[in-house]
Each structure stands twice: as structure tokens, then as C-alpha cells.
């Protein structure tokens, strides 16, 4: 298992989890989201390939109402 | 010739820009946005709710990018770094959309802009190809600097965000308009329709508001009022108001032919 941070909360994931699998598990597949990993944008096109690593800090965002 | 408002190379009919926060639900958000006649709406970028109601509709399903120009904002950011990160995420979220609203706040009590961080963020964003509409103070020198950096619209506050205090310093807004060529949009402080009309009468290119509509007792009705106020203010500006004549009355009716018992 590896431990990553998702939106500030620690989370355990199986080794060799790709971003797309995490998105799927979170019920966000097909939703309009954007993902940042350790301060860098992860393009949607690389969700299937990019493997998460121990200690990764992820931010997953959506659009909400705001002024 | 139709009076169009152009920002970042795209023309709009409406000069009212509205925020989408603080409504009681999406239905009210949608109704108010529609009643305002706006074509540009601001949105915020926030962490997804982990494991919470993934099935519920999203804001962008209610207000689709195909229908509105979306202006992702950096509300809540207190540093240039956070603002830049937020807008990079927004660009990814919106498939490469580069028009954004930059705001970097100074403190949570006043929500007054931190212009030092705002300038730093603007430089980075412009260099990365963003089209930056920038919320700032009503300081004309800073406004000019932001234009020189390459911002596509200068959006000074009229009074504090969410205060509804109206236009407290029209003179500074005019100083800004005299100095910058890009659109000047009053952002923050409008409380009611007359505030919006005054901003437009001063010659501002547009008005951006959220709380003035969402915080009204009847938001949808207020959205319609704001649409009319912005249109009326713009028309009055274009029409050119009569000069003020202090202490000097001028009758509107003919001065001759008045019946009188005093004169022959």
C-alpha cells in the first residue's frame, strides 16, 4: 500500500494505482474535474498512464458557484 | 451601430457580469442568471467533495460553457502562488479556456485586494498565456501598471466585496478610466440598482456583481432590475447628461405668453 494526500486528507491506495483508477473509485469518472499532483497539473490525457507514488499530494477540484 | 462591449477580442451585448455564489440552490442560480441577461459568469474552483454525492448535478451542467463565457476566479486566494495554481487548474478543468478573473486578497475581514501579490500573479499568468481580468483596488496607478503588464480588463472595487456600500469614490474610478485603454469594470460593492446605474453613467464598461443579486430578498427580481440599471446607465452615459448648473434654475416651459394680472 501507499499513502497519498487527496485534498488535504491522507488516503491509502494499492501499489501501482493509476490516476484513472482513483478517479473511478471516487465516483468522478466523466465529471468535469482538474487534478494537480505535487503542484503540477496532470492533464486528463495522462490519467490512464500516470501511476501514483508514496507521498503524492493531490488536489482534485471542480467548478462551484462563486463571485 | 450597436453598442457592444468587447473584452479579450470577444464582443458581448450585456455589460452586466454576474457571480454564481450564495444562491439557495441551482434553480435559483439559473433563474437569476437568466433574468440578469448576462453573458459572462464567474465561477469558483474548489476541492471536490470526497465521496459526497457524486451523482448530484454540477454547476457547469446548469450553466454550460456552450451558453456562457465562464470566468473562473481565484476568490479566497491570499498569495500569487495560490491564485496561479488555481487558475492553472481552472484552465485544465475548462479544456484550455484562458479568460480568467484574478483576485488576490489581503485579509479576510476586508477582502481588500493585495495589489503586490496581484501584480506578481498577473505577470506570471500573462506570461503563461492567460487573458487576465483583474480585480484590484481603485488606485489609478496600480490600474495602469496592471494594464501595462497585459491584463485584458481592469476591475476596481467600488466598495468592499459583499458590502453593498455602493460607489464610494467615483473620482478614482474616473481617474482609472482616464488612464487605461482596456475595459474598466466595477467589481464589488454594488448594493442596488442605482449603484449599477451610477457606475455605468460614470463611463465604466461594465459591472460585475454577485451579492447584490444573490443577497436580495428576491434575487431573480433584483437580477432583472440590475439588467435594466446597467442598460439605463449605459444609455445615459452615451446620451451625455445635461451640464449641472449650480444655483441657476432654468424653466422647462416657455417664458413668454404667460397670463398675468401684473403685466399688460
Structure description:
Chain A is mainly beta and 67 residues long. Chain A contains one helix and five strands. Chain A has one helix at 19-25, and strands at 2-6, 9-13, 34-37, 40-42, 57-65. Chain A has a five-stranded mixed beta sheet with strand order 2-1-5-3-4, with no helix packed on it. The longest helix of chain A has 7 residues, at 19-25. With 264 residues, chain B is an alpha/beta fold. Chain B has helices at residues 26-36, 59-62, 80-93, 115-127, 140-149, 170-179, 193-201, 211-214, 219-239; strands spanning 5-7, 10-12, 16-19, 40-47, 69-72, 99-102, 131-136, 153-156, 185-187, 206-209. The A-B interface holds A 6-9, 26-28, 31-36, 39, 41, 43-44, 59-67 and B 18-23, 29, 42-48, 50-51, 54-55, 58-60, 70, 72-73, 75, 85-86, 88-90, 92-94, 161-162, 208-211, 214. Strand 5 of chain A pairs antiparallel with strand 4 (40-47) of chain B.
Structural class of chain A: mainly beta
Helix and strand pattern of chain A: EEHEEE
Anisotropy-based shape of chain B: globular
Helical/strand content category of chain B? alpha/beta
Main sheet characteristics of chain B: 5 strands, parallel
Q: Helix tally of chain A?
A: 1
Q: Uncertain regions of chain B: pLDDT < 50 for 5+ in a row?
A: none
* Strand fraction of chain B: 15-25%
Shape of chain A: globular
Features:
heterodimer; A: 67 residues; mainly beta; five-stranded mixed beta sheet; 10% helix; B: 264 residues; alpha/beta; five-stranded parallel beta sheet; three-stranded parallel beta sheet; 9 helices; 36% helix
Amino acid at each position: 500500500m501507499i499513502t497519498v494526500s487527496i485534498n488535504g486528507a491522507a488516503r491509502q491506495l494499492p501499489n501501482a494505482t493509476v490516476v484513472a483508477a482513483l478517479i473511478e473509485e471516487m465516483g468522478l469518472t466523466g465529471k468535469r474535474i482538474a487534478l494537480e499532483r505535487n503542484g503540477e497539473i496532470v492533464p486528463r490525457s495522462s490519467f490512464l498512464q500516470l501511476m501514483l507514488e508514496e507521498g503524492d499530494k493531490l488536489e482534485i477540484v471542480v467548478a462551484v458557484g462563486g463571485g | 451601430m450597436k453598442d457592444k462591449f468587447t473584452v479579450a477580442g470577444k464582443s458581448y451585448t450585456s455589460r452586466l457580469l454576474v457571480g454564481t455564489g450564495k444562491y439557495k440552490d441551482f434553480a435559483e442560480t439559473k433563474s437569476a442568471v437568466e433574468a440578469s441577461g448576462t453573458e459572462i459568469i464567474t465561477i469558483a474552483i474548489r476541492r471536490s467533495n470526497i465521496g459526497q454525492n457524486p451523482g448530484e448535478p454540477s454547476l457547469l451542467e446548469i450553466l454550460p460553457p456552450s451558453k456562457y463565457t465562464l470566468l473562473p476566479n481565484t476568490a479566497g486566494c491570499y498569495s500569487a502562488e495560490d491564485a496561479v495554481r488555481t487558475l492553472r487548474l481552472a484552465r485544465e478543468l475548462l479544456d484550455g479556456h484562458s479568460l480568467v478573473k484574478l483576485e488576490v486578497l489581503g485579509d479576510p475581514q476586508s477582502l481588500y485586494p493585495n495589489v503586490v501579490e496581484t501584480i506578481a500573479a498577473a505577470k506570471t499568468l500573462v506570461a503563461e498565456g492567460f487573458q487576465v481580468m483583474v480585480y484590484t483596488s481603485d488606485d489609478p496607478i496600480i490600474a495602469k501598471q496592471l494594464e501595462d503588464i497585459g491584463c485584458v480588463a481592469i476591475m476596481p472595487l467600488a466598495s468592499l466585496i459583499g458590502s453593498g456600500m455602493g460607489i464610494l469614490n467615483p473620482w478614482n474610478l474616473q481617474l482609472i478610466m482616464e488612464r487605461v485603454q482596456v475595459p474598466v469594470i466595477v467589481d464589488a460593492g454594488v448594493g442596488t440598482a442605482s449603484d449599477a446605474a451610477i457606475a455605468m453613467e460614470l463611463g465604466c464598461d461594465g459591472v460585475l456583481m454577485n451579492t447584490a443579486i444573490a443577497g436580495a430578498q428576491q434575487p431573480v427580481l433584483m437580477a432583472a432590475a440590475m439588467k435594466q440599471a446597467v442598460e439605463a446607465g449605459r444609455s445615459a452615459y452615451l446620451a451625455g447628461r445635461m451640464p449641472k448648473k449650480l444655483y441657476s434654475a432654468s424653466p422647462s416651459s416657455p417664458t413668454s405668453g404667460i397670463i398675468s394680472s401684473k403685466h399688460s
